[in-house]
Write a structure and sequence with these properties.
- The protein is 91% helix and 0% strand.
- It is mostly helical.
- The model has no long low-confidence stretch (mean pLDDT 93).
């Protein structure tokens, strides 16, 4: 009887360990995905600020052209 109880407990412990192992694998996968997303967000941020810089440069150049051609108001 005690042997059956031991086997039952060991079976449950093995199932718990298997579940924990699955959770660990899932957590590592999620961690890798988050790291990749962080890199993508960083690249997008650089792209956005680079685009803003380009737009600002074009705006300054257009303002200068308008002033030289006397097209600017004020």
């Amino acid at each position: 009887m005690a042997n059956d109880l031991d086997n039952l407990v060991l079976g449950q412990l093995r199932a718990i360990r298997a579940d924990i192992a699955k959770l660990k694998r899932h957590a590592e996968s999620t961690k890798a995905q988050l790291a990749g997303m962080g890199q993508q967000i960083g690249a997008l941020t650089i792209g956005v600020y680079g685009g803003r810089s380009d737009i600002e440069e074009l705006r300054r150049r257009l303002d200068r052209v308008e002033r030289r051609l006397e097209l600017a108001d004020g």
